């Protein structure tokens, strides 16, 4: 169950039920307690606290103090006839503090308005956490939390596709600059002669094609964070100009003599070895030390494969927000993904999940459904398993020519950690059904004959496994 987000303190059972029902109708998750001592304040993140009648008025203030930090930033809703109201002076403070007055009989509109438009400072947004609970990702999340409160420059290192921009966004969202812009620019994707204009802006007529004045990324990111991706691809002349901005915090637009001050936090990223680039004369050492005050290395996906299920779940959520269907992977398919090297890292995984969500919407993806390069040895295991199934059932299942004769000695060995036999055999069955359908051109009756089963049995299996392409009867 998710965390409760509204706390209801009310000793009047009928009124408590009314408040809880109204909150649930509005989409909140209320937790009810007769007093503050009955509430576990450590495990929930409350957006609001409703306080009605409590049994002991003298103890009310002491009890509310027990909620501690959990309620410090929450909106406080109070019943207009609450005996606690005068004690807090809320009748005088309601216009300027985060206290709302609720009258009974309760109206949905009144409650919704009180929760939607509170007065005073808004609560802090939750931190943007990088997906993954493995050791490498736990360390990255810890480093993000450590460096976020400070304005120190951060250099994010790692292979392409590891999520370096997500790290930069996480640092920004956890910092005091989170309400200001986050501006990203890929230094390697912009021609060297245009990068200066992109970063610092230009005046009208500064060069051919400059038909109007334009702000650069430094101006657009004022007060916030500027993310310089692929900083290792920046030309040496441009590195000199960037170094000056980092040292003096000033710049000029292209075609202008007016110096402008800037207040931005710099986060840079690269997949290159900058120390080697320095040795080769391709990167300035002084700029490197300016950027790498706090280096942070993103692990390659192959180094935190335990996070695959969490990443797939996260990507399914993102795709569903785009209107695509979710997919799930069988144990065999997930084992195949664990065995893959992932040269494209998390970006490659996201692209694969998106592709499969289009091909197999709302279905379970099995090894045979994966693109060939992701199958590895798992497809071989399916073939060996097919022979095992044939031996177990006593049927001489027809296999493609290279697989027609398989001895018991060549069957797959049981993995050291064991396996889910039911799921493994289901993977095998789906693989053989697909092969039979391919061989027979999708004619179900012919495929059933190859598989030595009734046509109706095969149709049921097609429904069971979600295999419902346009097949011929």
Question: What would you say about this model in short?
Answer:
With about 475 residues, this protein is α/β, with parallel strands linked by helices.
Which features would summarize this protein structure in a list?
473 residues, alpha/beta, Rossmann fold, Helicase, Ruva Protein, domain 3, 20 helices, 14 strands, 41% helix, flat
Characterise the protein shown here:
This protein has 473 residues and is of the alpha/beta class. The protein has 4 domains: 113 residues, 3-Layer(aba) Sandwich (Rossmann fold); 163 residues, Rossmann fold, CATH 3.40.50; 73 residues, Helicase, Ruva Protein, domain 3, CATH 1.10.8; 43 residues, Orthogonal Bundle (Arc Repressor Mutant, subunit A), CATH 1.10.10. It has a 5-stranded parallel sheet with strand order 2-1-3-4-5. A 5-stranded parallel sheet has the order 7-8-11-6-12. A two-stranded antiparallel sheet has the order 9-10. Strand 1, helix 1 and strand 2 form a beta-alpha-beta unit. The longest helix is centred in the last third of the chain and has 19 residues. The chain is flat and about 85 Å long.
